[in-house]
Amino acid sequence: MASHMVPLERLDTWRWRIPRDEQRGMRVDGIVFADDRLMGRLRDDPALEQVANVAALPGIVGESLAMPDVHWGYGFPVGGVAATLADDGVISPGGIGFDINCGVRLLRTDLRRDDVSRVAARLADELFRAVPTGVGARTGARLAPRDLDRVLEQGAAWPVARGLGSHEDLDLTEERGTLAAADAAAVSLRAKQRGADQLGTLGSGNHFLEVQAVDRVLDVAAARVLGLDVGRVVVLIHCGSRGLGHQVCTDHLAIMDRSAARHGIHLPDRQLACAPLRTPEADAYLAAMAAAANFAWANRQVIAHDVRQAFGRLFGPHEAAAMGLVYDVSHNIAKFERHVVDGREMEVCVHRKGATRAFPAGHPDVPARYRSVGQPVLIPGDMGRYSFVAVGTDGAMARAFGSTCHGAGRDLSRHAAVRQLRGTDVAAALAREGIVVRAQRPDLLAEEATVAYKDVAVVVDVAAGAGLIRPVARLRPLVVVKG
Amino acid sequence: MERQAGSSHRQLPHTADVGFEACAPSLPAVFEEAARALAEIAAETTGTVGSPVETGPLRAHDLEGLAFAWLNELIALADAQGCVLVGATVSHLAPVADGWTLEGRATLVPYESPGIRTLRQVKAVTLHRLAVDRGPAGFTLTAYADI
Questions:
Q1: Which CATH number fits domain A9-411+453-482: 3.90.1860.10, 3.40.50.1220, 3.30.70.20, 3.40.630.40?
Q2: Does the interface predicted TM-score (ipTM) exceed 0.85?
Q3: Whole-model pTM?
């Protein structure tokens, strides 16, 4: 697992530089956001080599960035951010990943912690029944081809138009839950076959549905704007574009792997396969990626509806109706944005692979409701400790193309976690903390146990120290549903 | 799915995902062994008899590209049909003018069948560190899967 050692220079308490090395093919420096606590384990992690590899992408500007939760991925590190020139750069599907628009959505309830604690087991059962989870999770109903095409082009607006949510949900979703560049015709039949009966399913692995309570407010003014106060119950949903998105990435990686040499592109890792923007290969991928992103937003919208229905059955329809969306953010996506690079504003294609957009107060892409405080940033931790809500900052715009971390980041491999722990013991330990868990298989609980992840509080501390976010609230889990 | 003598595989650690290394005396056998490794990442199967499904003729400009196409074809066939991959056979693997071609068959079992214990959703096999190497004892195929 050890990578070739990558030279590191410390810039300040929160940042390290991987100097540009032409022999490695690096076109820009790498920047790693980490303090001593995070860098200790990271030094031997192949993620640093991946940061250097990403710096070899044609047309990359600024730096190849690693967020504080960075860890070894494939091609890009998980927690990697790179911006390429819109006119003269490339798009790399590996910089978005297989689970296109994997992301998180936070729902706010009018319930208090005690309301949920006394019925937590029943709520867990309701949610586990309401939302299909696990390997191969399906809804039992296949979308008709015409409806699936509409989902791919309309995103979250498609379920909302069918009563599965409100227009306010769209207002509070990144990009209002729809990328206009989507073209259903750009998505392969195979991808559509995989996705047709997966809309409204959670999946497995690190995807989850958690009922949490705000246990600490860190920024009173911002928390008020986001509607969060101590004791309030919220629901965090983490999932993506399911098999449809996986297939879109697979299809276009194969195309770009073949075409890269024709475009004169040579890369240190084939998973970084890419195509120059404004070529047919790039246009086809971007249209399909946008369609898969729309599928993911629709997926989280449908799941949110099912969660509201489950709460309604237990607490009454008035509580379901009161469950407003705080925000929905994407972790795996590429978007054209305007940023200042070397003192000049330019349009760039920002790849975020396991990273969250973190636009500051006043940015026009931040919903009007939050424009005074900044875009909400949702940072899940592990299922035994806590998650955080933060807001984006000017520092994120200046230093990270408006980006920040997306979670805690894994510390242990799945194998190592399973070797150390038994799933039943993990469930028992969670129960002792008052956390009710439902999972399709106990082994998964070992893979996803607290010790398998970095302490998200440290990650958030570094992101805040580096000026990428302003923490707003800390959330504690009450009910965990895993695939 | 008779296993060729001298074939084996092992899983490789990865922080977030899972890797594997398959070894076999011949190229078709190492592609079959890699399918076996992939199947074991996704599920445990005992006493199950699956249904064979033809893979389309696959082409790639090199063996790594062919491995990427083969393994992802198996993942996609299983996911699209709501099935678990049990294994696969290669009926034809040969060089062609512009690279390599492969024809084979996946063996799939529905998720809800008895004797199936699903483990992980394999999203895809990646190109990261994907390698097909020839050594004194045969061939080795190394791959990392996104979980």
A1: 3.90.1860.10
A2: yes
A3: 0.97
